[in-house]
Amino acid sequence: MSDNTSDAAVAPMITAMLVKFPVVGAQDVSVVRELESVVATLSARFLACSREDVRDLVYGTYERLASTAKITAHLIPLTLNRARADLEKQLSSSLVSPAPTT
Fold first, then answer.
1. Inside any domain, residue 100
2. I need a labelling partner for 19 at 20 to 30 A (CA). Which of 25, 52, 53, 70 fits?
3. What is the number of structural domains in the chain?
């Protein structure tokens, strides 16, 4: 999401996340924006995966990490790295390559 997305535009997404991912849904709007940035980055790299599958993986990864985190300052980069590793593992087992990075 871009930085100029209004909180009102993001509110329905947060509401939906409360049902599926309660820890994510309870976060500040900026966390959802950061997670959506992670989704966009990974979706661009892993073209064989649908955006919804990537979103579910990213949000689920954040949910797991946040539920046990003592320090939350680095949750977004940790989420990115863990979700990327999980996607690489999934794709290597299905013999599909990620898109080349620039």
1. no
2. 70
3. 1
Q: What is the pTM of this model?
A: 0.73
User: How many Å apart are CA 27 and CA 65, to the nearest integer?
Assistant: 13
What's the domain range around 26? 7-93
CA distances from 34 to 10, 89, 96, 101 (A): 12, 23, 27, 20
Kindly report, residue by residue over 13-66, the tens digit of the pLDDT.
666 666 777 666 666 778 888 998 999 999 999 999 999 899 999 999 999 999
